[in-house]
Design a protein that fits this description.
This protein is elongated. It has a domain at 11-79 and 111-121. The protein has helices at 11-38, 45-48, 72-77, 116-121; strands at 51-53, 61-63, 82-85, 92-94, 99-102, 104-107. The chain contains four helices and six strands. It has 131 residues and is α+β, with helices and mostly antiparallel strands.
């Protein structure tokens, strides 16, 4: 029995990357739009920090956080009740509300408000790519 050697078409690799690249971009953008739609808006910093990146090798990333939106994990996962203490002889102060609380405050915690995970785990259909 003679075996025939199969030689792959050298253009197939670039065709495959281009075809799959359309899928990666479509899914990444869909996840971003779902994150934006589900993101709770207080000051707007969190929703404005949502963005996409494409580092290559058929990868798309939805990013969140950055300057002014470091609290994204607390919003996504919530927090337990905890003690907040002043780092000096002054009282804790909420600048936005102009309220003073004292040197030690018992924070009741915050409920989770997930916006990343529901967007990521949503089932999606593949996009038909034009050839």
């Amino acid at each position: 029995m003679a075996y025939r050697r199969i030689r792959p078409n050298p253009a197939f690799r670039s065709y495959f990357k281009a075809y799959q690249g359309v899928q990666v971009k479509a899914v990444t953008e869909a996840v971003l739009l779902d994150c934006i739609a589900g993101c709770p808006i207080d000051s707007g910093d969190l929703v404005e920090s949502l963005d996409t990146r494409y580092p290559g090798e058929l990868r798309g990333l939805v990013t969140v956080g950055g300057e002014g939106a470091e609290h994204w994990a607390t919003v996504e996962y919530g927090s337990r009740p905890h003690i907040i203490e002043s780092h000096g002889p002054w009282s804790l102060h909420n600048v936005e509300e102009d309220e003073y609380y004292g040197q030690v405050v018992h924070h009741p915690g915050t409920p989770e408000q997930p916006f990343m995970r529901p967007a990521l785990y949503r089932r999606r259909r593949l996009v038909r790519a034009s050839r």
